Amino acid sequence: MSGAGGIMKLMVAARDREDGQESAGRWVNPWIAEYKRRQAMLMEMRPFEVIAMMRDLNLTSYAFSKNAEELQAHVLSYPAVGQSQPFNPDVGDPFGIELARLVANLLASVKSLVSGQRAVLRDIWPKLGKELSEFEQGEYTAKRLEVFEADEAKLLEELRNYSQHQFLPYLNPAWQFSQLVPMAEFQFRLHVEPLLKWDSLTAVVRKYLEKHGDSIDLIPIIGRYTAAVREFYRWFCLKVDEKMKPERVEYDAHVDELMAYGEEVFLAPDWIRSAGGEPPPDWNGARWRRRSIAEIRQRRWALGHTSFRGITVDGRGVAEVGDHPWTQIVLRVP
Predict the structure, then answer these.
(1) Residue 103 reports pLDDT greater than 50
(2) Selection from 15, 72, 4 nearest residue 278 by Cα
(3) 3-state DSSP call for residue 9?
(4) Is residue 304 part of a domain?
(5) N- to C-terminal Cα distance for the chain?
(6) For residue 91, is pLDDT > 80?
(7) How many domains does the chain have?
(8) 292 in a domain, yes or no?
(9) Partner residues linked to 319 by β-bridges
């Protein structure tokens, strides 16, 4: 049988398999079955779970970053957008209502990011009964207080709650004059009266707003908070990597071994994946397969197998090598 024919038979057998279970008239591919068995073992390991959590958290971080970028781009587009679209008396000017939507999106994504990060934190550094972990009480809290300006962070949190339970915050473009600045400064200011009338506003934020008069320039606050979130997020990801490093060493070694084995199991020429699926006129399937298998097995040999069985020593000083479910992958595809 030609190399191409053998590959196609392998692909058909893989498609028809029933995850290692034999049935009447059906052949189970042992190499794919072994691959899937090892894959299932990896998915049961703790690092796989953490990687999945961090992927979900990264998605939330992406949404936050894109919302921040869109908000910044919209602010920089003023007054072109505001003057190019018709005014809607039932809602407001086009620029202002779009700005309110973007601010609401940003505040919502910040809340999602904070909640997601806390979920990861409590999963990797769980509470001890009702007590927070030593990491959360110490290093985590210290870094959070270092990075975030407390009053501004609480203001944005309350704005998010206000937009959820009351109305979207509306920012008014205005020239701001100050004795400290020799020229007028253009700002997008938030009127604080609606917030101050809200019964659920926290005392800390109420006191903060009362010190700023009738309105407050919100865009710089959002900018500082966004930068702080990004800095804190990068730090947190590094701490997760640091915490998981011992387990990741074992997990990554197993992944590398399985990927090398998978190259051999799922070996297929590039032309199969291209449109039409026809081999080049001078293509020799058997020769290509022999050469490819030889190269893959050289890489598998160089990679080898890393054992994590561990060694225990009893009271008499006798050492014993432990057991580990992940043994060396010795199968070779013919």
Answers:
(1) yes
(2) 4
(3) helix
(4) no
(5) 12
(6) no
(7) 1
(8) no
(9) 313
Helix axes 218-265, 30-43, angle to 10 degrees: 150
What's the one-letter identity of residue 213?
A: G
- 7 — alpha (psi -120 to 50), left (phi > 0) or beta? alpha
Res 288 pLDDT > 90: yes
- Residue 283 within any structural domain of the chain: no
Query: Measured between alpha carbons, how far is 82 from 67 in angstroms, rounded to an integer?
Result: 20
| Exposure letters 213-242 (e unless 16+ CB within 10 A, then b) | eebbbbbebbeebbebbeebbebbbebbee
- 334 within domain boundaries: no
Q: Where are the beta strands (DSSP E) in 194-307?
A: 215-217
List CB contacts of 235: < 8 A, sequence separation 6 or more: 143, 147
DSSP 36-73: HHHHHHHHTSHHHHHHHHHHHHHHHHHHHHHHHHHHHH
The average pLDDT across 288-317 equals: 88
| Environment class of 151 (CB within 10 Å of its CB; exposed 0-12, middle 13-18, buried 19+) | middle
DSSP percent split of the chain into helix, strand, coil, nearest 5: 60, 10, 30
| Helix and strand counts by DSSP (H, E) for the chain | 13, 5
Range of the domain at 135: 46-241
Residue 183 per-residue DSSP state: S
Residue type for position 173: P
Q: pTM for the whole thing? A: 0.77
